[in-house]
Amino acid sequence: MSELSLPTFGSLPNRLLRLYAGLALYGVGIALQIRSYLGGSPWDVFHQGLSVHLGLSVGAWIILVGAAVMLLWIPLRQRPGVGTVSNVVFVGLFADAAMWLLPAPGAPVVSWAYLVAGVVVTAAATGLYIGAGLGPGPRDGLMTGLNRLGLSIRAARTAIEVTVLAVGWLLGGTVGVGTLVFALAIGPLTQFFMPRMRPGA
Which residue ranges run through the membrane (predicted)? Predict the structure, then answer.
């Protein structure tokens, strides 16, 4: 049995509202952390590295990588939902829009404010979109698919994120203190927000 088992509650309109609010906030959280210039999450180091090395925006790479990761779902027998497809399309768009709107931090305190806000917003967004119960994001689905094959969630997540972090760093993505802050804080913060962001909470 999977280690992740989340009940879903609420009407479909309510769940859709939570899904798309969560995806929008997720894009904002990504943008805040990247614009802090203190280091992104492992996946966003990877997306940033692809952008630096191959061109296109970070948001475009979020979309393209998400679509490619979904192909890995086929041998894992994972089934996408409307939330999965929406995640692939909209998170990258929201991230690019937020990065375009956010001013560059002019002082270290602003960089740190961006970083802290980015991690907190990402955790809250995760609670919203997963709590909607309309399908995991492509990257989360890869993790849960590996879990169904017998790999623990911890081992699956660690293996995936260490791999994308290393490749992203080699491609020129920004690894820094923000990457460490994200790694240490995202789990406890997501655990805090998950029960509070579900419909009916």
Answer: 20-38, 50-73, 85-103, 109-130
Identify whether the C-beta of residue 86 lies closer than 8 Å to the C-beta of residue 19.
yes
Cα 77 from Cα 148, distance rounded (Å)? 9
Q: What is the pLDDT of residues 148-185, one digit of tens each?
A: 788 776 787 788 888 999 999 999 999 999 999 998 88
Tokens of 147: 């879990």
3-state secondary structure of 180: helix
SS3 string, 60-98, reads HHHHHHHHHHHHCHHHHCCCCCHHHHHHHHHHHHHHHHH
Threshold 0.85, pTM exceeds:
yes
pLDDT in tens, 29-38: 999 999 999 9
**Sequence letter at residue 200:** G
Q: Is 200 buried (19+), middle (13-18) or exposed (0-12) by CB count in 10 A?
A: exposed
Q: What's the DSSP call for residue 174?
A: -
Domain ranges of the chain: 12-197
- Closest by alpha carbon to 178, among 35, 74, 1, 49? 35
Burial track 141-158 (b if 16+ CB lie within 10 A, e otherwise): bbbbbbbeeeeeeeebbe
Can you give the pLDDT at residue 4?
46
